[in-house]
């Protein structure tokens, strides 16, 4: 089996970091909306777990280990995947143009999540929070992707 070259390892590392930053920012905004709208930051993540546990998962309030942890895991996994894909397509775009590529990538991800993929694969946090939270989450994802040149060694 061939060993990955250094360029592949750097690309994967950058994609994972970009995805983790995207996951952290979207998790924070979803939790903040959850606290403001439902009184609990964990509730919206139960909605994400609808992919595994059905629509009733979105009706669970508060921290419910099975639904909440699966929802957090699905959100993180999806965003790391998107981060790696973003790095593959737009990883060499320099700042400030990266803000435009980050915005475009986030918009495409939104279109896929809410208009192309079947309902079972939609994120699900909007079920409890509404679409203003969707806008905020994808906006912060755009910013996270757009600022990615800064954790890859500067503006280059």
Secondary structure layout:
Layout: H1 6-38, H2 43-48, H3 50-53, H4 65-90, H5 97-116, H6 126-129, H7 131-146
Helix pairs in contact: 1-4, 1-7, 5-7
What's a quick, concise take on this entry?
This protein is 70% helix and 0% strand. The chain has 156 residues and is mainly α. It has a domain at 45-152.
Question: What characteristics describe this protein?
Answer:
single chain, about 160 residues, mainly alpha, about 70% helix
Structural features, described:
By secondary structure, the protein is mainly α. It has a domain at 45-152. It contains seven helices and no strands. It has helices at residues 6-38, 43-48, 50-53, 65-90, 97-116, 126-129, 131-146. Helix 5 (97-116) runs antiparallel to helix 7 (131-146). The mean pLDDT is 94.
N-to-C span: 33 Å
Element-by-element helix/strand order = HHHHHHH
Global structural class: mainly alpha
The level of helicity is: 55-70%
- Largest beta sheet, briefly? none
- In oligomeric terms, what are we looking at? single chain
């Amino acid at each position: 089996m061939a060993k990955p070259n250094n360029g592949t390892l750097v690309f994967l590392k950058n994609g994972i970091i970009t995805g983790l930053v995207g996951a952290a920012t979207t998790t924070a905004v979803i939790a903040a909306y959850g606290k403001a709208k439902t009184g609990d930051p964990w509730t919206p993540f139960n909605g994400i777990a609808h992919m595994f546990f059905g629509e009733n998962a979105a009706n669970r309030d508060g921290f419910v280990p099975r639904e909440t942890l699966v929802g957090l895991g699905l959100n993180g996994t999806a965003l790391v995947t998107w981060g790696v894909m973003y790095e593959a397509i737009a990883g060499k775009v320099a700042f400030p143009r990266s803000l435009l590529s980050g915005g475009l990538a986030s918009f495409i991800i939104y279109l896929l999540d809410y208009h192309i993929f079947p309902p079972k694969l939609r994120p699900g946090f909007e079920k409890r929070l509404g679409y203003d939270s969707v806008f905020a989450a994808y906006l912060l994802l755009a910013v996270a992707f757009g600022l990615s040149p800064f954790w890859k060694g500067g503006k280059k």
